[in-house]
Design brief:
146 residues; Aspartate Aminotransferase, domain 1; alpha+beta
Length: 146
Amino acid sequence: MPAGPDTEEHTVDKSNSGPKGGRSPSELIDGSITELGDWRGQTLSRLRGVVHEADPEIVEDWKWRGVPTFEHEGIVCTGETYKASVKLTFAKGASLPDPAGLFNSSLQGNTRRAIDFHEDDEIDEDALKDLVRAAVTLNTSKKIKR
């Protein structure tokens, strides 16, 4: 079960909670997980926890009319739920090393990469944390001026 907003486990950017009935992005994500009420909510909650374990400075946001977004100096990944899967999409996934071969979706593009999780799938938490950390490193690295 995810920690609520404003706990040590979740960094919340309340400045972006504007037209959402005054609820923070973390509260909206909590609500979405509760509303799902099945394996997809449990999976999204677990993935959310892994993302925060990998980088405690992750900021949660709620974009595009209901997509949980995890950011650190830019989007790290998003967590989307579908009827048969929970998709974790890495904004710059094509630039990330994936030695464990977690990426199994959105493989054709030049930028994003995703991982589709289905009911009863095992989650390689260590490899997922490595991906999150690599994405944060990519977001926070200084651009070389030429």
